[in-house]
Amino acid sequence: ETGVTQSPTHLIKTRGQQVTLRCSSQSGHNTVSWYQQALGQGPQFIFQYYREEENGRGNFPPRFSGLQFPNYSSELNVNALELDDSALYLCATSERGVTYEQYFGPGTRLTVT
Amino acid sequence: TQLLEQSPQFLSIQEGENLTVYCNSSSVFSSLQWYRQEPGEGPVLLVTVVTGGEVKKLKRLTFQFGDARKDSSLHITAAQPGDTGLYLCADRTGNQFYFGTGTSLTVIP
């Protein structure tokens, strides 16, 4: 067990709605990355937060946004949900500048109907 | 954009058999990581390889990094049902990780 937790475990939303997913960091890890994993695919990098600032972004539209808090926990917000947003959302925490080894949480399964 | 191709996409074998899965890149890897992901869980880091030609062993798992750092393989000896899962390779470029599509392994008892 990595010590990284995510909530909720499962979520069902309607197209057009907004959703907030949460991630708590493993102790001592100051960097959090968010990934989207569609069924049968590998995780795709959404963005990374370090010291409460966005520190890199993948090929995702602005309706995907995030926050990191002083205790290094994080939120992923998605506005105007689309059917293609249905996926497993993973967060991974790491200690920047050390080994870049990431520790993943169990993910949040989002279904958009 | 880094493109990582993994093969085979699916693999189903009997307990006790050996297997090898592959990860190939369109460009040189910065550093390569292998993960295993079980259903309903996040990926778990198995190993990080950095140097071309590097070989690392983790019990029955052997990881090789190509000399040109554009390919890697994972060999499992005497597979067990507990090895079942999705095996993912990932390359780190800066602070971003690019994942392959994975090899889904099923080990039948």
Description:
The complex is a heterodimer of chains A (113) and B (109). By secondary structure, chain A is an all-beta fold. Helix content of chain A is 0%, strand content 50%. Chain A has no helices and 11 strands. In chain A, strands 2, 4, 5, 6, 9, 10 and 11 form a 7-stranded mixed β-sheet that branches. In chain A, a hairpin with an 8-residue loop joins strand 9 and strand 10. The N and C termini of chain A lie far apart (32 Å). The mean pLDDT of chain A is 92. Chain B is an all-beta fold and 109 residues long. In chain B, strand 9 and strand 10 form a beta hairpin. Chain B is globular. In chain B, 34% of the residues are buried. The model of chain B has no long low-confidence stretch (mean pLDDT 93). Classes of the chains: A mainly beta (113), B mainly beta (109). The interface between A and B is medium-sized, with 29 and 24 residues.
List keywords for this structure.
heterodimer; A: 113 residues; mainly beta; seven-stranded mixed sheet; four-stranded antiparallel sheet; globular; B: 109 residues; six-stranded mixed sheet; five-stranded antiparallel sheet; 11 strands; 57% strand
- Largest interface chains and counts: A-B, 29 and 24 residues
Give the beta-strand count of chain A: 11
For the termini of chain B, the CA-CA separation is 40 Å
Number of helices of chain B: 0
Q: Which radius of gyration of chain B do the C-alpha atoms yield?
A: 13 Å
The main β sheet of chain B shows up as: 6 strands, mixed
**Helix and strand string of chain B, N-terminal first?**
EEEEEEEEEEE
User: What is the strand tally of chain B?
Assistant: 11
* Model regions low in confidence, pLDDT < 50 over at least 5 residues of chain B: none
| Low-pLDDT windows of residues of chain A | none
Taken as a percent bin, the fraction of beta residues of chain A is over 45%
Structural class computed from helices and strand pairing of chain B: mainly beta
Helix content of chain B: under 10%
Largest sheet of chain A: 7 strands, mixed
Indicate the overall shape of chain B. globular
Order of helices and strands of chain A: EEEEEEEEEEE
Percent range of helical residues of chain A: under 10%
Instruction: Give the percentage of residues in beta strands of chain B.
Output: over 45%
Average pLDDT metric of chain B? 93
What is the mean predicted local confidence, pLDDT of chain A?
92
Distance linking N and C termini of chain A: 32 Å
